UniProtKB/TrEMBL annotation:
Protein family per UniProt: Belongs to the LptE lipoprotein family.
UniProt subunit comment: Component of the lipopolysaccharide transport and assembly complex. Interacts with LptD.
GO molecular function, one term: lipopolysaccharide binding
Protein name, UniProt field: LPS-assembly lipoprotein LptE
Organism: Candidatus Methylobacter titanis
Membrane topology: Lipid-anchor
Pfam families, alphabetized: LptE
The protein's role, per its UniProt record: Together with LptD, is involved in the assembly of lipopolysaccharide (LPS) at the surface of the outer membrane. Required for the proper assembly of LptD. Binds LPS and may serve as the LPS recognition site at the outer membrane.
InterPro entries, sorted: LPS_assembly_LptE
Lineage: Bacteria, Pseudomonadati, Pseudomonadota, Gammaproteobacteria, Methylococcales
Length: 175
């Protein structure tokens, strides 16, 4: 029963309150962080080239956006071709002992968009992401983990950039 009575007056149950809050959240446009509204021809994407971590991030972004990575070009609505992917790390500053204090990570790739028939939708574009972090010599293991997390965030940022640009291209082409 949705409404119970207490001393003759109606009282809402927990289920009714939870249902009401769920309806309010869905009505306000709430969606999970990282999820995109994908155009219909972008629900199935094939990524050609690129590293394993980049493919992993593409897979996660597509899953959170109700899409999927295609295993071949034939089933794909759009093909993302990755070229010249490179990850570089350089020392920005040294301590008095000659140990590195600060690093800069640079992730760069070129990509272009095509349809499954290999017709070019967008010419080659570049994504260039840079991050710097402090390398405390007392916590070397923790800093290795920090660098791995930063790299994953950079891969995710690159994927989000590519997906956003692809959405714009596909939506502009549909008009």
């Amino acid at each position: 029963m949705w409404i119970e009575t207490f001393k003759g007056k109606p009282v809402l149950t927990k289920k009714a309150v939870i249902l009401g809050l769920a309806l309010l959240l869905s009505a306000c446009g709430y969606h999970l962080r990282g999820a995109f509204q994908l155009p219909e021809n972008m629900k199935n994407v094939y990524v050609e080239g690129g590293s394993g971590p980049l493919h992993e991030q593409f897979s996660q972004v597509m899953k959170s956006s109700s899409g999927q990575l295609a295993s071949s070009r034939q089933g794909a609505g759009i093909v993302i071709k990755i070229f010249n992917e490179e990850f570089n790390r350089r020392v920005l500053s040294l301590s008095a002992r000659g140990k590195s204090n600060e690093f800069e990570l640079n992730y760069r790739l070129d990509y272009e968009l095509a349809n499954a028939g290999d017709a070019l939708l967008m010419e080659r574009q570049t994504v260039d992401i840079r991050r710097a972090y402090y390398n405390d010599q007392q916590f070397v293991i923790a800093k290795d983990n920090e660098e791995a997390m930063i790299r994953n965030e950079m891969y995710l940022q690159a994927v989000n950039t590519i997906v956003n640009r692809a959405r714009v291209v596909l939506e502009a082409g549909a008009k």
